[in-house]
Design brief:
Elements: H1 3-9, E1 17-18, H2 19-28, H3 33-39, E2 46-47, H4 50-57, H5 63-66, H6 95-102
Antiparallel strand pairs: 1-2
Amino acid sequence: MNSAYVESFLSGVALPASKDELVAYAERQERGDEVAERLRRLPEREYRTLQDVGEELEPRQPEAWKREPPTRRPKVESDAPPGHGAYVGESVEPTNVVAARSA
């Protein structure tokens, strides 16, 4: 029984749910004993989505992706619009044309 089957089996459970709530839901369903047994191996925590349950059963994402990305300070802006003067309608020669003339 794979994690996708367990996720679909739990499709009616109220989320977020604890491990015990997931097990209890599975036990109330017809032929839910196998699913409940698999859910008993989950760590004790609150599961906000069915994908959280599936990820715990069969991890698909690398550990590095699960962590919060490092925060980076934004770069200082130049105050110039993209394309500089050409952005606001001024006639500006492209940089490659200016470079070709001076070569």
